[in-house]
Amino acid sequence: MAYVKVLSASGVASYEPKDTTPGLPSLRSNRGSYVDQSSTAWMRSTPIGTSLQEMRRRFEEDGYIWVKNVIPREDVYDMRERYFSQFSHTGMLRPNTSPRKGIFNPSSDPNVHEGIGGLPEENTKQLLNAVHADPVYRTFLAHPSLRSFIQQFTGWKQEVIVDRAMLRHNCPGSRSTGIHYDQYFLRDGEDEFLTAWVPIGDCAPAGGGLMYLENSSVLGKQLEDEFLKKAQHLPKQERIDAFNKFMASDGFMSHDAVEFREAHKERAGRWLVGDYEAGDVVFHNPWMIHAATKNEDELGRIRLASDLRFYEEGAKLDQRWMKVWTHDDGL
Length: 331
Hints:
There is one protein chain. By secondary structure, the protein is of the alpha+beta class. The protein contains eight helices and 13 strands. The chain has helices at 52-62, 73-85, 122-133, 135-141, 144-154, 217-231, 236-239, 257-263, and strands at residues 3-7, 13-17, 40-42, 45-46, 64-67, 159-161, 166-170, 194-199, 210-213, 271-273, 281-284, 290-292, 303-312. The strands form three sheets. Strands 4, 5, 6, 7, 8, 11 and 13 form a seven-stranded mixed sheet that branches. The longest helix is centred in the C-terminal third of the chain and has 15 residues, at 217-231.
Protein backbone atom coordinates (compact mmCIF):
# COMPACT_ATOMS: atom_id res chain seq x y z
CA MET A 1 0.00 0.00 0.00
CA ALA A 2 1.27 3.52 -0.80
CA TYR A 3 1.46 6.26 1.85
CA VAL A 4 1.58 10.05 1.78
CA LYS A 5 3.08 12.32 4.43
CA VAL A 6 0.60 14.55 6.27
CA LEU A 7 0.90 17.04 9.13
CA SER A 8 -1.52 17.22 12.03
CA ALA A 9 -2.82 20.52 13.40
CA SER A 10 0.02 20.46 15.95
CA GLY A 11 2.60 19.95 13.21
CA VAL A 12 3.28 16.27 13.94
CA ALA A 13 4.23 14.33 10.82
CA SER A 14 2.59 11.01 10.06
CA TYR A 15 1.80 8.89 7.05
CA GLU A 16 -1.67 8.17 5.71
CA PRO A 17 -2.52 5.47 3.18
CA LYS A 18 -2.82 6.88 -0.31
CA ASP A 19 -6.23 6.13 -1.75
CA THR A 20 -5.29 3.37 -4.16
CA THR A 21 -7.86 0.90 -2.77
CA PRO A 22 -10.89 0.01 -4.89
CA GLY A 23 -14.36 1.06 -3.80
CA LEU A 24 -15.83 -0.02 -0.51
CA PRO A 25 -16.78 -3.68 -0.26
CA SER A 26 -20.25 -5.00 0.43
CA LEU A 27 -20.43 -5.92 4.11
CA ARG A 28 -22.93 -7.73 6.24
CA SER A 29 -23.14 -9.36 9.62
CA ASN A 30 -24.78 -12.65 10.60
CA ARG A 31 -28.29 -11.39 9.97
CA GLY A 32 -29.95 -8.65 7.98
CA SER A 33 -29.14 -7.08 4.66
CA TYR A 34 -25.86 -5.75 3.31
CA VAL A 35 -24.78 -2.45 4.84
CA ASP A 36 -25.40 0.43 2.46
CA GLN A 37 -22.07 1.81 1.22
CA SER A 38 -23.01 5.29 2.47
CA SER A 39 -22.92 3.74 5.94
CA THR A 40 -19.43 2.22 5.56
CA ALA A 41 -15.91 3.62 5.31
CA TRP A 42 -12.30 2.50 5.39
CA MET A 43 -10.48 2.37 8.70
CA ARG A 44 -7.42 4.53 9.10
CA SER A 45 -4.23 2.45 9.06
CA THR A 46 -1.03 3.52 10.79
CA PRO A 47 2.50 2.52 9.71
CA ILE A 48 4.63 1.02 12.45
CA GLY A 49 7.12 3.88 12.11
CA THR A 50 4.60 6.58 13.07
CA SER A 51 5.56 8.53 16.18
CA LEU A 52 4.16 7.29 19.49
CA GLN A 53 2.68 10.74 20.09
CA GLU A 54 0.68 10.52 16.88
CA MET A 55 -0.33 6.91 17.53
CA ARG A 56 -1.65 7.79 20.96
CA ARG A 57 -3.53 10.76 19.54
CA ARG A 58 -5.20 8.56 16.94
CA PHE A 59 -6.13 5.94 19.52
CA GLU A 60 -7.69 8.58 21.76
CA GLU A 61 -9.53 10.17 18.85
CA ASP A 62 -10.74 7.01 17.07
CA GLY A 63 -11.03 4.46 19.89
CA TYR A 64 -8.81 2.09 17.89
CA ILE A 65 -5.50 2.08 16.06
CA TRP A 66 -4.71 -0.30 13.20
CA VAL A 67 -0.93 -0.69 13.14
CA LYS A 68 0.76 -2.21 10.12
CA ASN A 69 3.55 -4.79 10.34
CA VAL A 70 3.77 -5.17 14.11
CA ILE A 71 4.68 -8.87 13.92
CA PRO A 72 6.86 -10.42 11.18
CA ARG A 73 4.58 -11.79 8.50
CA GLU A 74 6.17 -15.25 8.33
CA ASP A 75 5.84 -15.70 12.10
CA VAL A 76 2.12 -15.08 11.75
CA TYR A 77 1.82 -17.59 8.92
CA ASP A 78 3.80 -20.13 10.95
CA MET A 79 1.06 -19.83 13.58
CA ARG A 80 -1.64 -20.17 10.93
CA GLU A 81 -0.05 -23.33 9.60
CA ARG A 82 0.29 -24.77 13.10
CA TYR A 83 -3.39 -24.16 13.84
CA PHE A 84 -4.88 -25.58 10.66
CA SER A 85 -2.50 -28.56 10.67
CA GLN A 86 -4.36 -29.73 13.76
CA PHE A 87 -7.65 -29.64 11.81
CA SER A 88 -6.34 -31.26 8.63
CA HIS A 89 -8.06 -34.58 9.33
CA THR A 90 -11.52 -33.02 9.87
CA GLY A 91 -12.42 -32.22 6.26
CA MET A 92 -12.31 -28.49 6.95
CA LEU A 93 -9.51 -27.76 4.47
CA ARG A 94 -9.71 -27.96 0.69
CA PRO A 95 -7.99 -31.20 -0.41
CA ASN A 96 -4.41 -30.86 -1.66
CA THR A 97 -3.94 -27.39 -0.18
CA SER A 98 -1.50 -26.31 2.50
CA PRO A 99 -2.69 -25.68 6.07
CA ARG A 100 -0.60 -22.51 5.81
CA LYS A 101 -3.14 -21.13 3.34
CA GLY A 102 -6.15 -22.28 5.35
CA ILE A 103 -8.54 -22.67 2.40
CA PHE A 104 -11.99 -23.99 3.23
CA ASN A 105 -13.24 -27.18 1.63
CA PRO A 106 -16.25 -26.02 -0.45
CA SER A 107 -17.78 -29.49 -0.36
CA SER A 108 -18.08 -29.31 3.44
CA ASP A 109 -20.85 -27.73 5.47
CA PRO A 110 -19.38 -24.62 7.15
CA ASN A 111 -21.72 -25.04 10.11
CA VAL A 112 -20.11 -28.40 10.88
CA HIS A 113 -16.74 -26.66 11.26
CA GLU A 114 -17.72 -23.72 13.44
CA GLY A 115 -15.28 -22.52 16.06
CA ILE A 116 -15.71 -20.26 19.11
CA GLY A 117 -19.11 -18.60 19.14
CA GLY A 118 -20.70 -21.30 17.02
CA LEU A 119 -22.02 -24.76 17.77
CA PRO A 120 -19.06 -27.02 16.98
CA GLU A 121 -19.31 -30.78 17.08
CA GLU A 122 -17.88 -32.63 20.07
CA ASN A 123 -14.61 -33.63 18.37
CA THR A 124 -14.10 -30.01 17.29
CA LYS A 125 -14.64 -28.83 20.86
CA GLN A 126 -11.81 -31.06 22.04
CA LEU A 127 -9.55 -29.80 19.25
CA LEU A 128 -10.34 -26.20 20.20
CA ASN A 129 -9.43 -26.93 23.81
CA ALA A 130 -6.12 -28.43 22.66
CA VAL A 131 -5.09 -25.60 20.35
CA HIS A 132 -5.69 -22.99 23.05
CA ALA A 133 -3.37 -24.87 25.40
CA ASP A 134 -0.80 -25.55 22.65
CA PRO A 135 2.66 -24.36 23.82
CA VAL A 136 3.32 -22.96 20.32
CA TYR A 137 0.27 -20.69 20.62
CA ARG A 138 1.14 -19.65 24.17
CA THR A 139 4.62 -18.73 22.93
CA PHE A 140 3.13 -16.76 20.04
CA LEU A 141 1.17 -14.67 22.56
CA ALA A 142 4.48 -13.57 24.06
CA HIS A 143 5.95 -12.56 20.70
CA PRO A 144 8.64 -9.97 21.48
CA SER A 145 7.60 -7.67 18.63
CA LEU A 146 4.04 -7.48 19.95
CA ARG A 147 5.00 -7.14 23.60
CA SER A 148 7.64 -4.52 22.90
CA PHE A 149 5.18 -2.43 20.90
CA ILE A 150 2.56 -2.61 23.67
CA GLN A 151 5.02 -1.44 26.30
CA GLN A 152 6.13 1.46 24.14
CA PHE A 153 2.62 2.44 23.09
CA THR A 154 1.08 2.30 26.57
CA GLY A 155 4.09 3.46 28.55
CA TRP A 156 3.53 0.58 30.98
CA LYS A 157 6.59 -0.87 32.70
CA GLN A 158 5.01 -4.32 32.46
CA GLU A 159 1.89 -5.59 30.79
CA VAL A 160 -0.21 -8.56 31.91
CA ILE A 161 -2.09 -10.63 29.34
CA VAL A 162 -5.25 -12.43 30.40
CA ASP A 163 -4.81 -16.17 29.97
CA ARG A 164 -8.16 -16.52 28.23
CA ALA A 165 -6.74 -15.48 24.85
CA MET A 166 -9.03 -16.80 22.16
CA LEU A 167 -8.32 -18.17 18.70
CA ARG A 168 -11.33 -17.75 16.44
CA HIS A 169 -11.65 -19.42 13.06
CA ASN A 170 -14.56 -18.56 10.81
CA CYS A 171 -15.21 -20.57 7.66
CA PRO A 172 -16.83 -18.89 4.65
CA GLY A 173 -20.58 -19.02 5.18
CA SER A 174 -20.51 -19.79 8.90
CA ARG A 175 -21.54 -17.54 11.78
CA SER A 176 -19.30 -14.65 12.73
CA THR A 177 -18.85 -12.67 15.94
CA GLY A 178 -21.84 -10.50 16.88
CA ILE A 179 -21.94 -6.82 17.85
CA HIS A 180 -20.44 -6.00 21.24
CA TYR A 181 -17.95 -3.96 23.23
CA ASP A 182 -15.34 -5.83 25.27
CA GLN A 183 -15.94 -4.39 28.74
CA TYR A 184 -19.17 -6.25 29.38
CA PHE A 185 -17.35 -9.58 29.09
CA LEU A 186 -14.74 -8.47 31.66
CA ARG A 187 -16.90 -6.57 34.13
CA ASP A 188 -15.16 -7.89 37.23
CA GLY A 189 -11.91 -6.13 36.40
CA GLU A 190 -10.83 -2.55 35.76
CA ASP A 191 -12.14 -0.91 32.61
CA GLU A 192 -8.65 0.26 31.66
CA PHE A 193 -7.33 -2.50 29.42
CA LEU A 194 -6.12 -2.76 25.86
CA THR A 195 -7.50 -5.26 23.35
CA ALA A 196 -5.22 -6.46 20.56
CA TRP A 197 -6.93 -8.13 17.61
CA VAL A 198 -4.37 -10.13 15.63
CA PRO A 199 -5.41 -11.47 12.20
CA ILE A 200 -3.49 -14.70 11.68
CA GLY A 201 -3.22 -14.49 7.92
CA ASP A 202 -4.37 -11.96 5.35
CA CYS A 203 -8.02 -11.05 5.82
CA ALA A 204 -9.99 -9.21 3.12
CA PRO A 205 -12.70 -6.68 4.09
CA ALA A 206 -15.47 -9.19 3.43
CA GLY A 207 -13.41 -12.08 4.79
CA GLY A 208 -14.69 -12.15 8.37
CA GLY A 209 -12.41 -9.50 9.88
CA LEU A 210 -13.48 -6.90 12.40
CA MET A 211 -15.58 -3.87 11.55
CA TYR A 212 -15.86 -0.98 13.99
CA LEU A 213 -18.75 1.39 14.56
CA GLU A 214 -17.28 4.84 14.05
CA ASN A 215 -17.05 7.10 17.13
CA SER A 216 -18.82 4.52 19.28
CA SER A 217 -16.73 4.59 22.47
CA VAL A 218 -19.08 7.06 24.14
CA LEU A 219 -22.08 4.98 23.06
CA GLY A 220 -20.47 1.86 24.52
CA LYS A 221 -20.04 3.60 27.89
CA GLN A 222 -23.61 4.87 27.79
CA LEU A 223 -24.99 1.41 27.05
CA GLU A 224 -22.97 -0.06 29.91
CA ASP A 225 -24.25 2.65 32.30
CA GLU A 226 -27.80 1.81 31.23
CA PHE A 227 -27.17 -1.86 31.87
CA LEU A 228 -25.60 -1.28 35.29
CA LYS A 229 -28.59 0.81 36.32
CA LYS A 230 -31.00 -1.97 35.35
CA ALA A 231 -28.84 -4.66 36.94
CA GLN A 232 -27.90 -2.89 40.17
CA HIS A 233 -30.11 -5.15 42.29
CA LEU A 234 -28.84 -8.41 40.82
CA PRO A 235 -26.40 -10.57 42.80
CA LYS A 236 -22.82 -9.76 41.84
CA GLN A 237 -22.14 -12.97 39.93
CA GLU A 238 -25.21 -12.37 37.79
CA ARG A 239 -24.49 -8.65 37.40
CA ILE A 240 -21.04 -9.27 35.92
CA ASP A 241 -22.28 -12.07 33.67
CA ALA A 242 -22.51 -11.16 29.97
CA PHE A 243 -25.33 -13.71 29.65
CA ASN A 244 -27.63 -12.47 32.43
CA LYS A 245 -31.33 -11.69 31.95
CA PHE A 246 -30.68 -8.15 30.71
CA MET A 247 -28.30 -9.32 27.97
CA ALA A 248 -28.90 -11.32 24.79
CA SER A 249 -28.80 -15.09 25.24
CA ASP A 250 -25.45 -15.36 23.43
CA GLY A 251 -23.93 -12.26 25.03
CA PHE A 252 -24.06 -10.02 21.96
CA MET A 253 -26.08 -6.84 21.51
CA SER A 254 -27.15 -7.74 17.98
CA HIS A 255 -26.23 -9.77 14.91
CA ASP A 256 -27.69 -7.23 12.46
CA ALA A 257 -25.27 -4.41 11.60
CA VAL A 258 -27.88 -2.42 9.63
CA GLU A 259 -30.51 -2.60 12.35
CA PHE A 260 -28.05 -1.79 15.15
CA ARG A 261 -26.63 1.26 13.41
CA GLU A 262 -30.09 2.55 12.57
CA ALA A 263 -31.12 2.26 16.22
CA HIS A 264 -28.08 4.26 17.35
CA LYS A 265 -27.37 6.54 14.38
CA GLU A 266 -27.71 9.68 16.50
CA ARG A 267 -24.84 8.53 18.72
CA ALA A 268 -22.43 6.79 16.34
CA GLY A 269 -21.21 6.85 12.74
CA ARG A 270 -20.48 4.41 9.94
CA TRP A 271 -19.19 0.86 9.99
CA LEU A 272 -15.43 0.96 9.40
CA VAL A 273 -13.49 -1.91 7.87
CA GLY A 274 -9.92 -2.71 6.82
CA ASP A 275 -8.04 -4.88 4.34
CA TYR A 276 -5.88 -6.63 6.93
CA GLU A 277 -2.53 -8.28 6.25
CA ALA A 278 -0.61 -10.84 8.29
CA GLY A 279 1.53 -8.92 10.77
CA ASP A 280 -1.03 -6.16 11.35
CA VAL A 281 -2.59 -5.66 14.77
CA VAL A 282 -5.67 -3.59 15.64
CA PHE A 283 -5.77 -2.20 19.17
CA HIS A 284 -9.00 -0.86 20.64
CA ASN A 285 -10.38 0.39 23.93
CA PRO A 286 -12.89 -1.52 26.11
CA TRP A 287 -15.87 0.53 24.89
CA MET A 288 -15.39 0.53 21.12
CA ILE A 289 -18.34 -1.26 19.49
CA HIS A 290 -17.35 -3.83 16.88
CA ALA A 291 -18.30 -7.09 15.20
CA ALA A 292 -16.96 -9.44 12.55
CA THR A 293 -18.15 -9.28 8.98
CA LYS A 294 -19.75 -12.33 7.44
CA ASN A 295 -16.95 -14.33 5.82
CA GLU A 296 -17.59 -14.20 2.08
CA ASP A 297 -13.95 -14.37 1.05
CA GLU A 298 -13.58 -14.76 -2.71
CA LEU A 299 -10.56 -17.05 -2.28
CA GLY A 300 -12.29 -19.30 0.22
CA ARG A 301 -9.89 -18.41 3.04
CA ILE A 302 -10.84 -19.30 6.58
CA ARG A 303 -10.60 -16.28 8.82
CA LEU A 304 -8.33 -16.95 11.80
CA ALA A 305 -7.58 -14.34 14.44
CA SER A 306 -6.64 -14.04 18.08
CA ASP A 307 -8.13 -11.47 20.44
CA LEU A 308 -5.97 -10.58 23.41
CA ARG A 309 -6.50 -8.33 26.43
CA PHE A 310 -3.71 -6.56 28.27
CA TYR A 311 -3.72 -4.76 31.61
CA GLU A 312 -0.99 -2.78 33.30
CA GLU A 313 0.71 -4.83 35.99
CA GLY A 314 -0.97 -4.14 39.33
CA ALA A 315 -4.42 -3.46 37.86
CA LYS A 316 -7.49 -5.26 39.17
CA LEU A 317 -8.00 -8.18 36.80
CA ASP A 318 -11.13 -10.10 36.02
CA GLN A 319 -9.96 -13.37 37.57
CA ARG A 320 -12.54 -15.36 35.60
CA TRP A 321 -10.34 -14.67 32.55
CA MET A 322 -7.07 -15.74 34.16
CA LYS A 323 -7.32 -19.29 32.85
CA VAL A 324 -6.90 -20.82 29.42
CA TRP A 325 -10.07 -20.89 27.32
CA THR A 326 -12.12 -24.10 27.20
CA HIS A 327 -15.39 -24.63 25.39
CA ASP A 328 -17.32 -25.15 28.63
CA ASP A 329 -15.90 -22.31 30.77
CA GLY A 330 -19.21 -20.43 30.77
CA LEU A 331 -17.75 -17.08 29.74
